[in-house]
Write a structure and sequence with these properties.
By secondary structure, the chain is an alpha/beta fold. It contains 14 helices and 10 strands. It is globular, with a radius of gyration of 23 Å. GO terms for molecular function: 4 iron, 4 sulfur cluster binding; catalytic activity; metal ion binding.
């Protein structure tokens, strides 16, 4: 049917034009609201002086970065097939710039910093990491300073120098079978990943650092029974993740990994959790809980928004400040709390038996 047969008067034509314009503006406003939803509280509908003031209020009321994960390097000596933060650059900020960013985060309300990678002990043989850990605990006096590592590069002398400033050390271990770790890529050559894990567990106890284990459940370990090994190691927390796909990292044309073969279903993940329900320190994280519930800073100190299944970076906090950048983080604070993101994370409060 032709338009001329429907529109029979100038009045109807005008209404049609108005309706079209309204639909267009509605779409634009919807996009604006989407960009500012999640990390910034309230809604945005710009274009007027009043609305510009609302934008400023959103920045002022932005999420407080209570717990932040700083992936200061992407380089790693392991080749885990499902890795979702891959070596797409070799960039690492200068030490003083990294400290400046950490100070900005503290001034914005940060209580916990977690250093990760890549492999954080790889850069400068762990000295860069150690200096950041010391700065955060000694100068910024953060309640909690933690690290996630594969454990392969850690030396006892690092604990001797920096152990006092570290609250929690998490070591990633996906299997207690060496062959399975080799299949996953959680290894460097034929070096034993499990030997490193047990050695670090002992060092943590000796130097009074809370010991944690992170495991990614995937097709190669989903049927494994880890109860005995986890019970023996007795970590303060055992974080169990469902393998997650991130476009551009471990999925898609531009990805450095192809993790599709590692993916398990929600049912498989739940069955694994059910079999390990007797482990009191187990903290499960499904894809739903994990995807948007972390404040992630990349090597340029940009927040990464994962809401679209990929990592969309904000501007760097070093350029625009924390409150401006965090509005583009996609952070879901409710899910952060729901998954138990806030817990006793200072070793002074854990009352652990050393």
């Amino acid at each position: 049917m032709q338009l001329s047969s429907v529109v029979t008067s100038p009045k109807l034509l005008l209404q049609l034009c108005i309706s079209t314009v309204q639909c267009f503006l509605s779409s634009v406003f919807s996009k604006v609201r989407y960009w500012t939803t999640g990390a910034c509280k309230g809604t945005s509908s710009a274009l007027s002086p009043v609305d510009n003031k609302l934008d400023q209020k959103e920045i002022q009321n932005a999420t407080i970065p209570t717990s932040v994960n700083y992936h200061f390097t992407r380089k790693c000596n392991y080749k885990c097939g499902f890795c979702f933060h891959t070596a797409k650059t070799s960039f690492v900020l200068p030490l003083e710039e990294a400290k400046r960013g950490l100070k900005l985060l503290k001034e914005s309300g940060m209580e916990k910093i977690n250093f990760s990678g890549g492999e954080p002990f790889l850069h400068d043989k762990g000295e860069f990491l150690g200096k950041l850990v010391q700065f955060c605990k000694q100068d910024l006096q953060l309640p909690s300073v933690s690290i996630v590592s594969n454990g392969s590069m850690i030396k006892e002398k690092w604990f001797q120098k920096y152990g006092d400033y570290l609250d929690i050390l998490a070591v990633s271990c996906d299997s207690f079978d060496e062959e399975t770790n080799q299949l996953i890529g959680r290894a460097q050559g034929r070096k034993s990943h499990l030997d490193s894990l047990y050695k670090i567990r002992n060092w943590c106890q000796q130097y009074k650092v809370a010991f944690k284990i992170n495991s990614v459940i995937n097709t190669f370990n989903v049927d494994e029974d880890m109860v005995e090994s986890i019970t023996q190691l007795a970590p303060c927390r055992w974080k169990v993740f469902q393998c997650l796909l991130i476009d551009g990292e471990n999925a898609g044309e531009k990805a450095l990994r192809e993790a599709e073969r590692f993916i398990i279903s929600e049912q498989q993940f739940q069955e694994f959790l059910d079999r390990h329900s007797s482990v009191s320190c187990l903290v499960p994280e499904s894809n739903e809980k994990m995807r948007n519930s972390y404040l992630i800073l990349d090597e340029y100190m940009r927040f990464l928004d994962c809401r679209e299944g990929r990592k969309d970076p904000s501007k760097s906090i070093l350029d625009v400040g924390v409150k401006d950048a965090i509005c583009f983080s996609g952070f879901d604070e409710n899910m952060f709390l729901k998954r138990g993101g806030k817990y006793l994370w200072s070793k002074a409060d854990m009352k652990l038996e050393w």
